[in-house]
Amino acid sequence: MNQFIESGFLGETVLWGVEVWRLLLALMLVFLGMLSRRVVQWIFGGVLKKRVGKTRVQWDDDLVELVPKPVALVMQVLLWFAVAFVLQLPEEPTNVRKFVINGLMAALAVAATWVAFRLLDVLARAADRAAEKTDTRLDDQLVPLLRKTFKVFLAIIVAVVVVDKMGYSVASLIASLGIGGLALALAAKDTVANFFGSVVVFTDQPFHVGDWVEFGGVEGVVEEVGMRTTRIRRFDKSLATVPNQTFTNTAIVNHSKRPMRRLRFIVGLGYETTPAQMQAFLEGVRALLATTPALDPESNLVYFKELGDSSLNVFVQGFTLSTAFTDFMETQEDVLLRIMQLVEEQGLEIAFPTRTVYFRDEHWKPALAALDGEGRDGET
Hints:
- The protein contains twelve helices and eight strands.
- The protein is α+β, with helices and mostly antiparallel strands.
- It has three domains: 2-133, no CATH class; 205-257, Roll (SH3 type barrels), CATH 2.30.30.60; 258-380, Alpha-Beta Plaits (2-Layer Sandwich).
């Protein structure tokens, strides 16, 4: 068989002294590499997806969803390795073989790392589902941080191994980095400060994922806490990315930590209100708040506060037992409507800004009288 190949057309050499049969076999392996991606995706997306859909656990569904693409890439790179060995690439005058093998090794490392990242994502999803069943929300923000941390360390380890396998000295490479150590430290000071800021968040726990916070002009709901930044979803649906070092020297207001929510406003009555009417109105508002089940009965305050510029101001304050925004707004709406009804029932009026001008100089009286007379003549 070997004699037939060597003596026939298949035994002839082409570029770099590679026989024709090796070239044809290499082309076949390249085609199989391209085909292998579709085969792997068909296996995971067709056969395995139907089987895992019948199980009660969720992690196998995540595995079938996340793993196919990186696994297909690993298969393709392995077939490309076979192509490199079949071709027997030359090592002189230029070491083409080493260059290609190193490139494929780096590609295989990237593909394998991608597979490892996807497996970490599967574990992270399982951990997220477990964290949702717990009462504390610390694990909800700890899982994404650990996932990112493990990915960073894994990428560093793979990079070191690949560099070592390529024949480069890792120790000398690290030593050479020491020359620019000072510049690197200065450039990384913000990164270090952000890291310690994340440590503060996880140790002091000023907020958790899902909390409504306000600090430094930023207000919204915490979506994710990372090693370097924290993501806040504003109420206009925009996303704010805040460096973690901000939390080391900024006052943080956590609205989600309050046990109740304050309802406070001013009711302005007209100056036509008599003292007796004011007293009856105050008693009516106090009774109104006391009969509102959504309010804390021990925190209700109703007082005649001040004589305003154009109204008699009544201070009203209460605390809703629910901190949800919709519950708070519904309670406030109900209280305001009932106060309006009380004002109407007692024959009072809610004041609005007015101003009365008095002329005290005597020489204005004849002119005013003349104008008043002309007005009456015009009317008659």
